[in-house]
Amino acid sequence: MAGAMTRAMILAAGRGERLRPYTDHLPKPLLEVGGKPLIVRHLESLAAAGVREVIINIGHLGDLIVERLGHQWRGLRIIYSDERSGRLETGGALIRALPQLGDAPFLLVNGDICTDFPWDSLLQPSLASVYLVLVPNPSHHPAGDFALNAGMVALQGEERHTYAGIARINPALLRGYPEQSAPLAPWLRQWIAAGVVEGTLYQGIWTDVGTPERWQVAQEICRVRQDGI
């Protein structure tokens, strides 16, 4: 499985309403942290881990992402999944991109996070249909999303953690869903309830860039490891 897992998808179609006015003229994944756009940081670390093809969904100001990255980037092949006519949310975005994602498990990452997560750890063989990365709850999300129980993600538990926007998914799970606007969270809860989701708690560098204040936090946190992410 590890050898076949060479694709990743970066979610980059969001409007970034809470980051206006910055996102009125620039898509959120092109916001810079430590002198590099967030999405470039992802491409660098994914390529270093062995990923060879990246699917990027584009929506708001998506032309700027295409202009910035092109279709070949330092050995990576980039394919764009077009949502400029209407954003599909994460679930719908995955269904639209299924023809490009292929049959092997793929990595999934939100385009608006800054992290030093070691991607190669998700390229290891696993029988789990889904693998989620969780992080300690940030101050803006104190209740968390899911718990961990002996390596399996659980809906309930004494200690809950926040979904990091990092996952590995077997595309076979997605077949049969219609292509329409749909969030991913309800599907995750279904899969967790079915017992097919493994996970881990990552306690390294991670922050999401959802507001101007959190963008500043990312600048302060991520530049500590500027050469490593």
Automatic annotation (TrEMBL):
Source domain of life: Bacteria
InterPro entries named in the record: GlmU-like, NTP_transferase_dom, Nucleotide-diphossugar_trans
Domain Nucleotidyl transferase: start-end pairs: 8-124
CDD domains according to UniProt: NTP_transferase_like_1
UniProtKB keywords: Nucleotidyltransferase, Transferase
Name of the protein in question: Nucleotidyltransferase family protein
